[in-house]
Amino acid sequence: FHNVEGTWRPESLAMFTVIYYGLSCWTYGLSVSSGLFIPALLVGAAWGRLVGIGMKALFPTQDWVSPGKFALIGAAANLGGIVRMTISLTVILIEATGNLTFGLPIMITLITAKWVGDMFGEGIYDIHIQLSSIPFLGWEPPYGASNIYASEVMSSPVTTFKACEKVGVIIDALESQSHNGFPVVDTTVDSFCGAGANGRHFDMNQSYSIDYGHETTFGRYRGLVLRWQLIVMLKQRLFNEYEQDWHTYNWQTFRDAYPRYESIESVVADITDREREYTIDIRPVMNPSAYAVQHTASLTRIFRLFRAIGLRHLVVTNDRNEVIGIVTRKDIARYRSRWTGGKYLWHELQISHN
User: Per its UniProt record, what PROSITE patterns does this chain match (predicted)?
Assistant: First the structure.
């Protein structure tokens, strides 16, 4: 633990580097707070000082040969090659040394480490994200994504709701599905939605999907409703048959439930079998201008929409504005490409939807 020059022996440094490098590889990924940032700095500083001691033995009269400087550059190279950080890591190391004169060599070292590392694979954090099956989007769309269309990456069939839907249908869908958003559709152009209490007509016997040859559609797209909105409506019993509740609800009803919404299981316990046959008008709470793309939209455009706006789901429609599928973040996060051996390799990750 002494920092006086000359107290470091090559034998102890070599032993420390090998042992600590093995421990770092062994403990990374375990559910313990072992860390990787500081161990990478220590290992890099150890072998950097080893190189500096070797250079000092070769050039004993040169003033520019300083094992301490080599230790700093080694720490930067080792950590930069592992995590692939450049600018932020440069600032961290300059702050640690307190000397701006090391800025340029540290920056050159980190850029070189990143370039060399990218030739062999991704950074260790990116690899761990893939191993954990986390739908994390990169900075740029995959190579060749402009030749892939929305109809190739979308999920189908789609769980949709009509503008006026039965309570039982909504409950069954929320209990069986874990999705956050659901498209709202009209199965017929002239369909109506209203409450039986005030004499308006609503037809609950329309089919959910229409088969046009090889294309299955799920109704004309009207908007998007979120899971928590449906749960709040079920909790407050905003049913068409309860006219007094239907006219008294307001947006404060939904604001009061934020941010911890109840689960569908806790709401279902209070709904009777008779109420399951009642209806809910989804139009007042749905988003009528939610983002949607046509089936001919490229994966590049879809990727940039998710990346820039932070979408979780994107409805796919056909030329007749009918829902044919939906794209989620997991659907596009599973496509990866990388430059290896002078060519791009395209592969699809297996991402869990649980």
Answer: CBS (PS51371)
**pLDDT tens, 214-250?**
567 788 899 999 888 888 888 888 887 776 555 556 6
Q: Provide the 3-class DSSP secondary structure of residue 337.
A: strand
Q: Tell me the three state secondary structure of residue 190.
A: coil
- Closest to 324 (Cα-Cα) out of 176, 160, 190, 201: 160
Contact (Cβ atoms closer than 8 angstroms) between residue 200 and residue 224: no
Task: Please give the Cα distance from 74 to 94 (Å, whole number).
Answer: 14
Q: Which residue ranges form the domains of the chain, and what is each CATH number?
A: 10-132 (no CATH), 150-190+210-348 (3.10.580.10)
Q: How far apart are CA 352 and CA 349, in angstroms?
A: 10
Rg over alpha carbons for the chain, rounded to the nearest Å, is 30
Helix pair 103-120, 87-97: axis angle to 10 deg = 140
Instruction: Decide: helix, strand or coil at residue 300.
Output: helix
How far apart CA 247 and CA 190 sit, in angstroms, is 25
| Sequence-ordered list of residues with C-beta below 8 angstroms from that of 233, at least 6 positions apart, any chain | 280, 282, 285
Q: Is the peptide bond before 105 cis (omega within 30 degrees of 0)?
A: no
Query: Do the beta carbons of residue 60 and residue 41 sit within 8 Å?
Result: no
CA dihedral 71, 76, 77, 79 (to 10 degrees): 120
| pTM to 2 decimal places | 0.64
